[in-house]
Design goal:
Largest sheet: 3 strands, mixed
CATH superfamily: CBS-domain
Mean pLDDT: 91
Low-confidence stretches: none
Distance between the termini: 6 Å
Shape: globular
Strand content: 15-25%
């Protein structure tokens, strides 16, 4: 099957998303977040308030907000998180995810199922899938 004939709308977000999630409350410090990201080897953490997802903190937030603005490590995550949380349904196609990421200029997208966040899909996930399917 050639790359031109492959239907990217047939691959669902749930097929390639990362299911490992770490979530924190808005008062968690950026130092604590950094340690969680390092130990979990992940690039994003969901922020929840009263069990409701309200935002996301990514590795990019550390570069663009903490380092660039010289914020202290005891800064709370609510001050640097990206919000509102942008999400996509787990049943949407990876093409829809790529289009949403492109239009919103984001690299990580929360994945939802009936209002609950069940995973994260990243631009790296999409590139890896593209590489995999283009070699078919």
């Amino acid at each position: 099957m050639s790359h031109e004939n492959f239907n990217y709308s047939s691959i669902k977000v749930e097929d390639i998303m990362t299911k490992t999630l770490i979530s924190v409350n808005p008062l968690t410090t950026v130092f604590q977040i950094a340690k969680m990201m390092e130990q979990g080897r992940i690039g994003a953490i969901i922020v929840q308030e009263n069990k409701i997802p309200t935002g996301i903190v990514t590795d990019r937030d550390f570069a663009t907000k903490i380092a660039a603005e010289k914020l202290s490590f005891d800064t709370t995550v609510e001050k640097i998180m990206s919000h509102p949380l942008i999400s996509i349904s787990h049943t949407e196609s990876i093409l829809a995810a790529a289009e949403l990421m492109s239009s919103k200029k984001i690299r990580k997208l929360a994945v939802s199922n009936n209002g609950s966040i069940v995973g994260i899909i990243t631009s790296t996930d999409l590139v890896n899938q593209l590489a995999l399917t283009s070699s078919i």
